[in-house]
Amino acid sequence: MKLRALVCVAVAPLALVACGGSGSSTDTTVASSSPNGAMGTIPPSGTVEKSFTIGTDTGTDVVFEVAQGDNVKLTFINPDGDDEVHVHDYDITTGAMDKNVASSVSFTADKAGDFEIESHVSEELLLTLRVTAK
Ligand SMILES: [Cu+2]
């Protein structure tokens, strides 16, 4: 975990969203997966939304479970300081987050497995995203 986090930080200036990707490209992009279009106001079925307050709702024992194929929107806010949240393997980040300002990531959970969601500021594991195979 620690070593992995350090690798992430080292890679970050070169490719902000590539951390954990081992150089592989990904076709997962934020807000491109909704069949209704990115700006659709009616969520398609299978949309899962969850908000996390970092330091309150997060921890190494927190597991958030979704089904493969779900459209997932995760919102994070850190009341204690600036942050950046990264979904490993999906290679999606919130980008720089100001203290107390919520930021979201949206993606289709097309890969099954356990995926670490970590802070790139504290380098802590915030929670594990568990995508259960269909
Ligand atoms: Cu990372």
Any overview of this molecule?
The structure is a single chain. The protein is mostly beta strands. It has 1 helix and 8 strands. It has one domain: Immunoglobulin-like (Sandwich), CATH 2.60.40. The chain has a 5-stranded mixed sheet, with no helix packed on it. Strands 1-3-6 form a 3-stranded mixed sheet, with no helix packed on it. Copper (II) ion is lined by residues 8, 19-20, 86, 88, 118, 120.
Keywords:
three-stranded mixed β-sheet; 34% strand; Immunoglobulin-like; globular; binds copper (II) ion; 134 residues
Write the layout of secondary structure elements.
Layout: H1 2-11, E1 47-53, E2 63-67, E3 71-77, E4 85-87, E5 92-93, E6 103-108, E7 113-119, E8 125-132
Parallel strand pairs: 1-3, 2-8
Antiparallel strand pairs: 3-6, 4-5, 4-7, 7-8
The protein binds copper (II) ion.
Overall radius of gyration:
14 Å
Each distinct ligand: copper (II) ion
Question: Which CATH C-level class is it?
Answer: Mainly Beta
- Give helix and strand order, one letter per element, not per position: HEEEEEEEE
Mean pLDDT comes to 81
Oligomer: single chain
**Count the helices. How many?**
1
Strand order of the largest sheet: 2-8-7-4-5
CATH architecture: Sandwich
| Helix coverage percent | under 10%
Strand content: 25-35%
**Which blocks of ≥5 consecutive residues have pLDDT under 50?**
10-18, 21-34
Please name the CATH topology. Answer: Immunoglobulin-like
The number of domains is: 1
Helix vs. strand class: mainly beta
Number of strands: 8
Largest sheet: 5 strands, mixed
For the termini, the CA-CA separation is 28 Å
